[in-house]
Write a structure and sequence with these properties.
About 50% of the residues lie in helices and about 15% in strands. With about 325 residues, it is of the alpha/beta class. Helix 9 (about 225-255) runs antiparallel to helix 10. The structure holds uridine-5'-diphosphate (UDP) and magnesium ion. Magnesium ion binds near residues 92, 94, 96, 198 and 203.
């Protein structure tokens, strides 16, 4: 049974040697029946040379170089499309997800599960800000989403071929892969693990990318934010009714023009709400627009190691 390991890498030249070494050790039990797919997501350092070198040293390492940086989720998708295994294991290049968990995950899968995902019981070496926002994000997402997406999971998981095919059949461009696997269904189970600090380098997820991922997740798995407009409309109706009473009251009692302060207050309140709901609609509209264009998700620039059955052309068409 062929096992594929898929790793998206962006500027990970320093993590690569340790990564491949630990992956080889973890997959040794399956030795020749393993392919390790390293996807270079438009790195600006020597990640691609590093991947080529690893592939020369270890025949089971394959490399895929995207034409430019397309983001973690798309790079992962590219690797998943190229994977040929019966079972597919995905993890980050920085070794925050321990490859040694593979044997436990394989054992779970032998017992009939289709997806075994890692759930972070603790995160080491990450800022309190990241921990706090990640914690809040998963809880808000779950409240809004109709699909239960397990809390505190990343893309670290082992999946079976049939679930992978189900996910690859989803054509959307805004890819929130952990949610897509959750949505696919089948038999899923989580394993708790402690998320280690990065082995090398800095995080490749600055604030802007985190916000984009959060919006992609929310807009892909919930339309509830769109309904906020309706709820706010009710709220403002109540406020407006109270204001009406107040305005008539002061007209009758004091026979004066109603106060300036309250006018400004009302105008800013309502325009704030209008802008907010317009913005939410804009987020969805923009994503509809991007989906409608239907561009390929990525292009493959170069490949090393192993003959790839899916040609870059057919792969980007599938996307
Ligand atoms: N990554 C990528 N493209 C990007 C950003 C990140 O392929 O545009 C990869 C990165 O090399 C790593 C994984 O995605 O293997 C997770 O990124 P990172 O560890 O920086 O995120 P964090 O763990 O800090 O959330
Ligand atoms: Mg990381």
């Amino acid at each position: 049974m062929l096992l594929s390991v898929v790793v998206p890498c962006m500027n990970e030249e320093d993590s690569l040697p340790a990564l491949v070494e630990r992956l080889i050790a973890a997959t040794d039990a399956w030795s020749d029946d393993t392919e390790i797919l390293l996807v270079d997501d438009g790195s600006t350092d020597d990640t691609w040379d590093g991947i080529c070198l690893q592939s020369q040293k270890h025949p089971r390492v394959r490399g895929l170089k995207l034409s430019t940086n397309r983001g973690h989720q798309v790079a992962l998708t590219a690797g998943l499309m190229a994977a040929r295994g019966e079972r597919i294991f995905m993890l980050d290049a920085d070794l925050q997800d321990p490859p040694e968990l593979l044997s436990d995950m394989m054992a779970m899968m032998d017992r009939g599960y289709d997806v075994v995902y890692g759930r972070r019981s603790e995160r080491k070496g990450e800022s309190w800000f990241k921990k706090l926002t990640a914690h809040g994000f998963y809880r808000i997402l779950n409240r809004l989403s109709d699909v239960p997406i397990p809390n505190d999971t990343g893309d670290f998981r082992l999946v079976s071929r049939r679930v992978l095919n189900a996910v690859l059949d989803m054509p959307e461009r805004a890819r929130f892969i952990r949610g897509m696997f959750a949505w696919a269904g089948f038999r899923q189970i989580g394993i708790e693990y402690v998320r280690d600090p990065r082995v090398a380098g800095e995080t490749k997820y600055p604030m802007s990318k985190m916000i984009r991922l959060a919006f992609d997740a929310l807009s892909s798995f919930s339309i509830k934010p769109l309904q906020i407009a309706t709820r706010l409309a009710f709220l403002t109706l109540i406020v407006a009714a109270l204001m009406l009473v107040y305005v008539f009251w002061s007209l009758i009692l004091y026979n004066t023009v109603a106060g300036w302060a309250s006018t400004v207050l009302v105008i800013s309140f309502f325009s704030g709400i209008q802008l907010l709901t317009l913005g939410i609609m804009g987020e969805y509209l923009g994503r509809l627009y991007i989906e409608a264009k239907g561009r390929p998700l990525f292009f493959i620039d170069e490949q090393v190691g192993g003959v790839v059955e899916n040609t870059p052309e057919t792969m980007s068409k599938q996307a």
